[in-house]
Amino acid sequence: MLETSARLLKLLSLLQTPRDWSGETLARELGVGARTVRRDVDKLRNLGYPVEAVAGVAGYRLGAGASLPPLLLDDEEAVAVAIGLRASAAGGVAGLEESSVRALTKLEQVLPSRLRHRVRLLQSVAVPAAQGAVVDPEVLLAVAAVCRDHQRLRFDYRSHAGTASVRTTEPHRLVHTGRRWYLTAWDLDREDWRTYRLDRMTPRIPTGPRFTPREVPDLAATGAGIASGAYRYQAVFRLRASAAEVADRLASSVATVEAVDDTTCLVSTGANSLDELVLWMGLVGFPFEVVSPPEVAEHVRTVAARLAGP
């Protein structure tokens, strides 16, 4: 009995990701025969899990059923959990944004349509207190799903300057910086890793075919796009401190740090105002000079004179 229960739990876990599984693959993963897989699928269905048959590949996937599977939640509790996860995914609880999106994606995959409608209704009348960029929850969930299922994603994208373009990508993962959501993806047209702000994208439906995930590099280069590329002003500073010392004080989502030697490093970052950029760098606590651009160097002198007084 214990062996059967453990196998059912593993089967349920496999069915949650990716979306489609062939019967042969499930049998291999579980170490049983195809007939046992069919019996176990029937047991999950009897328990209320909406396991659907996939035409053409003799396989299965976990779909949205007419009623909520037995998660020990009634309708009201399920709606409350979904609303809470949406709020957390928007940045309501520091450090929980990405895990909230993963949990919300799993929950909404099996949430009945009547409950999904209630969640959206309550979300539409709620007023967010956060002042960061607003991301449509449906966009967030759609991008999370293609990251999970390794499906290509095409979307309309608007740059900081307002230029519109269409991007075709292999999505890797979502990143939340505390104020904004970003997608890290391989851009098929540019043949490079790129980052995109979710509040500037509109996914095109249906999504593209599945792909084999690429080997993930050191994402410092894509981190640079998150740290500075989304802002009006970008600058490079030379700090008289080691890269390790500076990296301990600056998250990779707000700046990239490159060692020059044991006592000097370069910091690349950005901000939407020159005052914010200069004062923020001054608060890091190390002597610095501006490498580029000249307008930031000029503003440093202006701010220094202003703080020094008459």
How would you describe the overall organization of this protein?
- By secondary structure, the chain is an alpha+beta fold.
- It is 43% helix and 23% strand.
- The chain has a five-stranded antiparallel beta sheet with strand order 7-6-5-4-8. Strands 10-11-9-12 form a four-stranded antiparallel beta sheet, sandwiched between helices.
- Strand 6 and strand 7 (192-197) form a beta hairpin.
- Helix 4 packs across helix 6.
- The longest helix is centred in the first third of the chain and has 18 residues, at 75-92.
Summarize the structure.
With 310 residues, the protein is of the alpha+beta class.
**Terminal residue distance:** 83 Å
Structural class label: alpha+beta
Order of helices and strands: HEHHEEHHHHEEEEEHEHEEHEH
Largest sheet: 5 strands, antiparallel
Helix content, binned percent:
40-55%
Q: Give the beta-strand count.
A: 12
Beta-strand residue fraction? 15-25%
User: Any idea what the radius of gyration is?
Assistant: 24 Å
Total of helices? 11
Instruction: Give the low-confidence spans.
Output: 127-131
Residue-averaged pLDDT: 79
Strand line-up in the sheet with most strands: 7-6-5-4-8
Looking at the structure, what is the overall shape? Answer: elongated
What's the layout of helices and strands?
Blueprint: H1 2-16, E1 21-22, H2 23-30, H3 34-46, E2 51-54, E3 59-62, H4 75-92, H5 97-110, H6 113-125, H7 137-149, E4 153-158, E5 164-176, E6 181-187, E7 192-197, E8 201-203, H8 220-229, E9 233-239, H9 243-247, E10 255-261, E11 264-271, H10 274-282, E12 288-292, H11 294-308
Antiparallel strand pairs: 1-3, 2-3, 4-5, 4-8, 5-6, 6-7, 9-11, 9-12, 10-11
